[in-house]
Design brief:
The chain contains 3 helices and 2 strands. By secondary structure, it is mainly alpha-helical.
């Protein structure tokens, strides 16, 4: 996501709340991959959402604050 590529992934908890397309079955995988190939608008939309998601949730500042909170809680 951080480099602007849409993500199709298995529905694991770490992707919950992200703009990743979560595919649980073979058919869902195929449908999502086809969607990204034939629909450039959706591809670009998911690309931008992914970049924004990473910036908002995984910036150095945010991760730094999470580490500070963790160490202060020990």
């Amino acid at each position: 996501m951080s480099v602007g590529l849409p993500v199709v992934a298995s529905p694991v908890p770490s992707y919950k709340g992200s703009p990743a397309l979560l595919a649980a079955t073979k058919e869902e995988w195929l449908n999502y991959l086809k969607l990204l190939i034939v629909n450039p608008t959706e591809y670009l939309s998911l690309s931008q959402k992914g970049i924004s998601f990473v910036k908002e949730n995984f910036s150095l500042k945010k991760i730094g604050h999470m580490y500070i909170e963790l160490f202060e809680s020990l």
